[in-house]
Amino acid sequence: MSHEPLDAIDREILHQLQQNARRPITAIAEAVNVADNTVRNRIDKLEAAGVIDGYSADVNYD
Question: What is the model's pTM?
């Protein structure tokens, strides 16, 4: 995946993660309309390719 372009499923998975990185894989799979294993495999590939560089927490102390 290092040089492969992102397809619509990859982009939607990324969008789902950007909205809420703690969202369960099953909920992402349902939103993207693919199997849970597909989401897991694609996230693994996106992480390995450096597309997903990490996960962070936005904190609101108010």
Answer: 0.85
